[in-house]
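Hi all, long-time lurker, first post. I run a small reading group and we've been trying to get comfortable going from sequence to structure in the token notation. Rather than ask abstract questions, I figured I'd post a concrete chain and ask someone more experienced to write out its structure so we can walk through it together at our next meeting. Sequence below, copied exactly:
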Amino acid sequence: MHRRARALLHVALVLCASALGCLEPTPGFGETLTDAETSTTSAPATDASSSATSSGVTSDATGATSSGATSSGATSSGATTASQPCDGACDPVLELCNEAAGECECRPDFERCGDTCVNLVNDHGHCGACDVGCANNQTCSAGECLGPQCDGGLQKCDKSCVEIDSDVLHCGECSNPCPATQTCVMGECVD
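-- Answer (accepted) --
Happy to help. Here is the structure in token form:
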């Protein structure tokens, strides 16, 4: 029973270390267990340098331990890898990270045109559709290229007609974008 208790304690310590992101060998607990010591909890070895227990914890030939549960980004050397699937690649104003897919997606009401996200309703270079630009003397309003002035209480910002009380790229004033995680309500960026 003593050997089984020791093996279970070893597994518990490794799992705890994994959860805390520190998988450095613990003195006295990093040695490789023999088949006799782990016979009640071990699965067949997958190769000559590693044996796996039913908990997913492995001990390699050097005595270092690691766990199959490394989704926190911890590695067996104690180093950490990026925990964010998009790895900071998303534009903080135009994109949100889809963690399940591991990729950046356009914020709500925006469409991807080439390498960027745009609001087809009032983007001067993508007015109503990708790559449909308005002439220099026109503005984009409601997805259409119109005359140089904005109608209906809209404000002209960067050759676009916008409602500054609700436009996420011009919130409250021209060129005042809200972060991708916020919306514009009454000219203020809010969660």
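A couple of things your group might point at:
The first strand starts at residue 50 and ends at 52.
The first helix runs from residue 2 to 20.
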